[in-house]
Write a structure and sequence with these properties.
This protein has 390 residues and is of the alpha/beta class. Helices cover 27% and strands 23% of the residues. Strands 1, 2, 3, 4, 5, 6, 7, 8, 9, 10, 11, 12 and 13 form a 13-stranded parallel β-sheet that branches. The radius of gyration is 23 Å and the shape is globular. It starts with 7 loop residues before the first helix and ends with a strand.
Length: 390
């Protein structure tokens, strides 16, 4: 069967598997006239906002799903929406805006202008900021509130330098659209929070979100591996969350504080730990956390992510006695609804290191022997693989 005879949906899935390798996508586009339309879908799915200033890009705007802003220096947020071809009718597929900075400072001079320019983009559901600095909390709040369709928010290495005491944005000027009342308080379904040098800024943002509609609308909450904010964030959400990811190493002695008791709808839990020989402490908390730290009545899946930062013997990345304890805990009646437990050991691709295949097989067998009850129930999976970043 010729590749071009496959349905477009399958071809798109195949090309998405190359993971934004632009050179490969260009080669595919040049190799076959039949594959050119599918390759274009992937080539122009994510673009830098500078491309919206170029007339020659007009034929390709219909493919754009995500826009990236990655300039150096300062960015006045309302200026972003005045970019030449940044118009809703030219970008019908647009889903997300992503600020990826390196010493990029974002702020708003005129909140009413920011709102009037951005409220037209009702299709934008995703907003992410990475390595971005904001002078004060209200700049971040205005950006969040200005996107009426926003449902997913990701903040990683975001520093808020000055905090507001009342945690509320300044009132929007009178005369703006009455529809704005629905966007003043965002209603998110997914929230991702990563590490920050100034922890209090994102903690205050979580408190602000936790007092609005997001407190009962968030179904997926992710505290990334190096996040310092579990307690400051977790206490503001709970009953609506079905998927929760958090770093066990950041919980330390607060693991039994009870702030997870309100997470009564959990279906999926992901816990991340560093390799045992790099950070042994959290491994002693793993079984007690599963035993007493979370409600498990509705829990269906548990993932234990182990991160390897440097080449090592994989057997030293796990505290095997901890898995013995986990096996005992997960035999309890409250975990009877479990359908999947995954133990994943990950290392960075950039290490240019691969464990010996025989060593990987040995570790996988040892995991199964320690979690023998889960293996007998056929709900255990062990994964050892490289990832782009840990």
């Amino acid at each position: 069967m010729a590749l071009t005879s496959l349905p477009n949906e399958l071809l798109i899935a195949i090309l998405r598997a190359v993971d934004r390798d632009l050179q490969t996508l260009r080669n595919v586009a040049l190799a076959s006239r039949d594959l050119l339309p599918v390759a274009r879908e992937q080539l122009f799915r994510i673009i830098n906002i500078r491309a919206l200033e170029q007339l020659y890009m007009l034929p390709y705007f219909g493919y754009v799903e995500h826009i990236v802003e990655s300039r150096l220096g300062q960015l006045v947020l309302e200026n972003l929406f005045t970019t030449r071809y940044f118009q809703p009718d030219l970008l019908p597929r647009l889903q997300g805006i992503h600020f990826i900075g390196s010493k990029m400072v974002c702020y708003t001079k005129d909140p009413s202008l920011l709102v009037s320019l951005s409220e037209r983009f009702t299709s934008i559901s995703e907003l992410s900021l990475l390595r971005v600095v904001l002078p004060c909390l209200s700049d971040l709040q205005y950006l969040i509130c200005s996107l009426p369709g926003l449902s997913q928010l990701s903040l990683k290495q975001v520093d808020v330098l000055e905090n507001l005491t009342d945690l509320h944005p300044r009132p929007f000027p009178e005369g703006l659209s009455g529809a704005l009342s629905a966007t003043i308080e965002p209603q998110l379904s997914r929230l991702i929070i990563g590490p920050s040098r100034y922890v209090s800024g994102l903690a205050d943002l979580a408190a602000w979100l936790g007092r609005g509609p997001s407190a009962s609308s968030i179904t997926s909450l992710v505290l990334s591996r190096h996040s310092q904010l579990p307690r400051a964030v977790l206490g503001h959400f709970g009953p609506s969350v079905r998927q929760l990811s958090l770093p066990l190493q950041a919980l330390n002695s607060g693991v039994y504080d009870g702030y997870l008791s309100q997470y009564t709808s959990l279906r999926g839990l992901s816990v991340s730990l560093d390799a045992y020989n790099a950070s042994p402490g959290p491994w002693y908390l793993l079984a007690p956390f599963l035993d007493r730290g979370i409600p498990a009545n509705h829990l269906r899946t548990i993932t234990i992510d182990v991160y390897v930062e440097y080449p090592m013997q994989l057997s030293s990345a796990i505290r095997w006695q901890a898995l013995d304890q986990v096996n005992e805990v997960l035999e309890e009646v409250k975990f009877e609804a479990l359908t999947s437990v995954i133990v994943a050991i990950c290392w960075r691709e950039s290490l240019r290191w691969q464990p010996d295949p025989e060593e990987k097989e040995t570790v996988a067998r040892n995991v199964e022997s320690r979690l023998y009850d889960l293996a007998a129930r056929e709900i255990l999976a062990t994964r050892l693989h490289s990832v782009k970043a840990v």
